[in-house]
Design a protein that fits this description.
This protein is an all-alpha fold. About 85% of the residues lie in helices and about 0% in strands. The protein is built from five helices and no strands. Helix 1 packs antiparallel against helix 4. It is elongated.
């Protein structure tokens, strides 16, 4: 591997770490927000959710995708036939859906139209962890 490729990989990993940090924290905010009854608390959670999404989660997703796609393009011939890569890419596609669903939930909370229970958000909060476990195993072990 060239030094340039390793730099791209490092920036991709940095993007992944910050994206996942936001995907772990935002649904936790939803858990607390869904059980908040006072207007000041609701407004505070709306502000926190919006800022986390716009300032950390969205840019991190973009960084992850840009550097991930760049790495794919550079090493396509080496990885195109790898089964693990296709499962990883499918999992990333699901994470993108999760990411955008979080934006939808933020908009619903902003107009006081929370569509789910606290229990839903507690389960929803665990989905990125499962995706992370799968992706790390696929990338490190390369089982197929």
């Amino acid at each position: 591997m060239t030094t340039g490729y390793l730099w791209l990989k490092a920036f991709h990993i940095i993007g992944v770490v910050t994206w996942f940090a936001a995907m772990f924290y935002l649904p936790r905010l939803f858990v607390y927000h869904s059980s908040t009854t006072d207007e000041a608390g609701k407004a505070r959670f709306c502000m926190m959710e919006d800022k986390l999404y716009r300032i950390i989660m969205q840019p991190s997703m973009i960084i992850t995708l840009v550097f991930g796609i760049w790495l794919l393009v550079l090493a396509w011939d080496a990885f195109a036939a790898s089964g693990w890569l296709w499962i990883k890419l499918a999992t990333v596609a699901l994470l993108l859906g999760y990411h955008h669903y979080c934006a939808r939930l933020i908009r619903a909370f902003a107009v006081d139209q929370n569509p789910h229970s606290e229990k839903f958000y507690r389960v929803f909060n665990e989905l990125p962890a499962l995706a992370l476990i799968l992706i790390v195993i696929l990338v490190v072990v390369k089982p197929f």
